[in-house]
Design a protein that fits this description.
The protein has seven helices and seven strands, in the order E-E-E-H-E-H-H-E-H-H-E-E-H-H. The chain has about 180 residues and is of the alpha/beta class. The longest helix is centred in the last third of the chain and has 18 residues, at about 160-180. This is UPF0215 protein GCM10009019_08230.
Length: about 180
């Protein structure tokens, strides 16, 4: 992958009722190009719209991939990866960092009416284990023929792709700023 290839990473940080979502545009050579922020509701169903808003706010046609940290930010505010893909017209990859049996049982346990949230979760593409720098990550992808290559290209060290890592740091800093 060329060093100037760009990806938008989206990650969250939350305290209280709102979650800060940060988007960070990062090149494959680790140069950070841009940021955007949105808020979504903890335990809500608006995170998908927020990710799309981050994309639209940035207005960066040079970004070739969108990577999100997991599929359920802000306490099960489940993302619709296919809807995001349709909106941004780019490959969308969700990267998580722990093996798990899935979130279905937890969603049913935590919500009196898991309906739409559970259906959205169950429509997600399956997770695929990918080894990066001696660490396992778990990737779901929509519209990407080479998810392993993309994740590895944006992960120079450790197991966290740089766009997601930078977005997580930015979300935490913005969340700290908002709550101070």
């Amino acid at each position: 992958m060329k060093s100037g290839t760009r990806a938008l990473g989206v990650a969250e940080s939350y305290t209280g009722e709102d979650s800060t979502l940060a988007g960070a545009v990062v090149r494959a050579d680790r140069v950070v190009d841009d940021f955007s922020f949105e808020s979504c509701t903890v335990g809500g169903l608006d995170a998908t719209d927020c990710v799309i808003d981050i994309w639209n706010d940035l207005d960066r046609p040079d970004v070739q991939y969108l990577l999100v940290a997991g599929v359920a930010p802000a306490w099960f505010n489940v993302l619709d990866l296919r809807r995001i893909h349709d909106a941004v017209e780019r490959p969308v990859l969700s990267v998580s960092f722990e093996a798990s049996p899935g979130l279905g049982d937890a969603i049913e346990r935590e919500f009196d009416d898991p309906g739409e949230r559970l259906e959205r979760y169950e429509r997600q593409p399956p997770r695929k284990e990918v080894w990066v720098n001696d660490e396992a990550v778990f990737v779901r992808s929509v519209g990407c023929e080479t998810p392993t290559e993309v994740v590895r290209a944006f992960t120079p060290a450790g197991g966290r792709p740089e766009p997601v890592r930078v977005a997580r740091l930015a979300a935490r800093a913005a969340d700290d700023y908002r709550t101070d």
